[in-house]
Amino acid sequence: MLYWEAERPELGAVHHLMVLCFHLQHPALYSPEGLEEAKRLLIAFVRAGASPEAVRRDAARAVDSGRRSYSITARPDAEGRYARPAAWQMTTADVIAGGIGQYTTQVEAWARAICDTLSESGNL
């Protein structure tokens, strides 16, 4: 997917969702606090329709590493995990199967599917 974004820069319009979706499906990449922040971002993007620019502007102070009191990425003693199992409706394989021509649409659908799955499983 990163290759597609490099090959066709206009596909970078959904880069924020692609990275967020991948990490949300691999919660141990986050710290517990980072996972909570990621879920908040997902809600902002999917349910509130926020743009990456608006989110960056609104969250700049809160996520500034010089001000933030927690790590976003996992540490050996602190990995993010969901309270309940989540049965993913869509994964990277589904995005890729749609091909480069459907990439933007597929990534947006992936983000909605993750939001739905997390909500239905009680993890959101």
SSE inventory with pairings:
Blueprint: H1 2-7, H2 15-24, H3 32-46, H4 52-63, H5 92-97, H6 103-120
Helix pairs in contact: 2-3, 2-6, 3-6
Describe this structure in words.
This protein has one domain. It is mainly α and 124 residues long. 54% of the residues lie in helices and 0% in strands.
List its traits.
single chain; 0% strand; mainly alpha
Oligomer: single chain
Largest sheet: none
Bulk shape: globular
From the alpha carbons, calculate the radius of gyration and give it in angstroms.
Answer: 15 Å
E-strand count: 0
Summarize the structure.
This protein has helices spanning 2-7, 15-24, 32-46, 52-63, 92-97, 103-120. The chain is mainly alpha-helical.
